[in-house]
Inverse folding.
């Protein structure tokens, strides 16, 4: 616990200064921006940012390479070969860093989520409420247990689950809520936990994007009954694939271990139904090799995000992701913003993104359409197992009540800077992002010709 307390104090000191500066306007504001005048680069002007890249991702250094070589030479490549191998070592360190009692490492974030669903005994006939604005792995973890993923709408400004719509969609078959910390920032967990407690439901945190983010004094993934992470290549801590489950309930976490180990418990008995979801030793070696700089990179992303938010304050038509009260820090897997075209002379998001790319800052949309509009719903409605385990009335209502208008709006309005690498840049890099946005805004009337 010494490592966690030391790094946590160091981060809070740095983050407090960044957040205070952002709130108080002590970071260079729009009025002091440079190079915003002049013709748009896409129309022949000079780009704000020219010929510059971003810090490479995924991260590696000699320490990562050394850990991989050491593990390769050891011939201990599977976690069951050694109780002190890289996977058990990573599990202990990840739990300690996050302030959790137990960790089970898996082969992916989706595997971690599915392990939790199985360990909680959720299956055919049961329902789990989650977000339509997420990676398909979220619903795959529920579908793999032949339970029913029920999609609730979003808060339009935070891109997170709307607790009021979550509660509206609870039925007698609802067993759990699976909130998603989108972009790596905390969702409205306080409200969701209150609903879960009042309605007797479990909470599985999908913190797959939320590494080390802190909400109301706790790390994401340690707030619900169970919490899950992904270490896929794009994530802010990465090993190619890989995942992890955190929890404080020893009996429940023991069930997670048994499920992920093809139903075989730590006692060596095959006891339940389970896939083989074990993280391998080489993946854990990559994660351990990154350990010395994990907190420094996390802190740098938060400082840069705070600086960028301060620089964009007051920019009409650009609204950075809303953060809920109690958010002390974010993973900033993505730095997301809402683009409101009415403030840009009605120019489409596509025109805005083209203009930004010409200025040397490539922003992009994120999810093209919510999962409530994907064909998997009609697929499962025709599956015999769903027809057996759910009444015709329930399936009809499920099919008809799939609208998520706020999610639809977010899909059309959101622009983002992929942040795992770019937010490790310099303050000058952040200034150039902000300068480019302000420049495009100041030349908004010219966007119509793009």
């Amino acid at each position: 616990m010494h490592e966690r307390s030391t790094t946590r104090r160091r981060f809070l000191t740095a983050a407090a200064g960044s957040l205070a500066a952002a709130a108080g306007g002590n970071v260079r504001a729009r009025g002091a921006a440079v190079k915003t005048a002049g013709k748009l680069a896409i129309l022949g002007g000079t780009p704000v940012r020219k010929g510059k890249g971003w810090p490479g991702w995924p991260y590696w250094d000699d320490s990562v390479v050394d850990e991989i070589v050491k593990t390769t030479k050891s011939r201990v490549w599977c976690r069951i070969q050694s109780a002190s191998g890289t996977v058990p070592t990573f599990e202990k360190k990840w739990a300690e860093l996050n302030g959790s009692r137990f960790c089970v490492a898996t082969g992916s974030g989706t595997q971690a989520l599915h392990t939790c669903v199985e360990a909680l005994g959720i299956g055919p006939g049961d329902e789990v409420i989650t977000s339509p604005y997420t990676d398909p792995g979220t619903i795959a973890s529920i579908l793999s247990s032949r339970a029913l993923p029920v999609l609730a709408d979003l808060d339009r400004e935070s891109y997170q689950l709307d607790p009021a719509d979550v509660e509206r969609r609870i039925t007698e078959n609802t067993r759990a809520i699976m909130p998603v910390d989108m972009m790596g920032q905390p969702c409205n967990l306080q409200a969701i936990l209150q609903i879960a407690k009042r309605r007797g439901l479990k909470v599985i945190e999908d913190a797959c994007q939320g590494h080390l983010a802190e909400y109301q004094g706790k790390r994401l993934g340690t707030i619900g009954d169970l919490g899950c992470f992904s270490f896929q290549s794009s994530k802010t801590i990465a090993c190619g694939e890989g995942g992890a489950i955190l929890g404080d309930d020893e009996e429940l976490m023991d069930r997670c271990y048994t499920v992920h180990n093809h139903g075989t418990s730590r006692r060596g008995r095959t006891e339940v139904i389970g896939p083989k979801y074990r993280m391998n030793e080489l993946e854990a070696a990559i994660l351990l090799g990154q350990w010395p700089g994990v907190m420094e990179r996390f802190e740098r992303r938060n400082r840069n995000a705070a600086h960028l938010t301060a620089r964009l304050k007051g920019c009409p038509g650009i609204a950075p992701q809303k953060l809920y009260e109690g958010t002390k820090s974010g993973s900033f897997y993505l730095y997301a913003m809402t683009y409101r075209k009415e403030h840009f002379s009605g120019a489409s998001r596509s025109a805005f993104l083209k203009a930004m790319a010409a200025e040397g800052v490539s922003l992009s949309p994120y999810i093209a359409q919510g999962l409530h509009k994907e064909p998997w719903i009609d697929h499962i409605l025709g599956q015999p197992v769903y027809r057996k385990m759910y009444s015709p009335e329930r399936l009809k209502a499920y099919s008809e009540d799939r609208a998520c208008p706020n999610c639809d709006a977010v899909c059309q309005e959101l622009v983002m800077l992929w942040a795992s690498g770019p937010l490790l840049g310099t303050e000058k890099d952040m200034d150039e992002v902000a300068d480019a946005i302000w420049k495009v805004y100041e030349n908004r009337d010219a966007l119509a010709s793009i």
About this structure: The first helix runs from residue 2 to 24. The radius of gyration is 23 Å. The chain has two domains: 2-57+293-367+410-449, 62-292. Residues 1-28, 30-35 have pLDDT under 50 and may be disordered.
